[in-house]
Amino acid sequence: MNQLVFQIESHENVPYMWGDGGVGYILQCPIHKEEVAFLWQCT
Predict the structure, then answer these.
(1) Which of 20, 23, 35, 41 has its CA 20 to 30 A from that of 12?
(2) What does the domain layout of the chain look like in residue ranges?
């Protein structure tokens, strides 16, 4: 999974917080387009 589809930062534009001001990512497999993943990183 290395193709970025969408990125959203918490607490700025949505009423959710991932960790302490984290960032959420939706990634897609470049070969198998139907496979996606959601992950987040905390700052």
Answers:
(1) 35
(2) 3-41
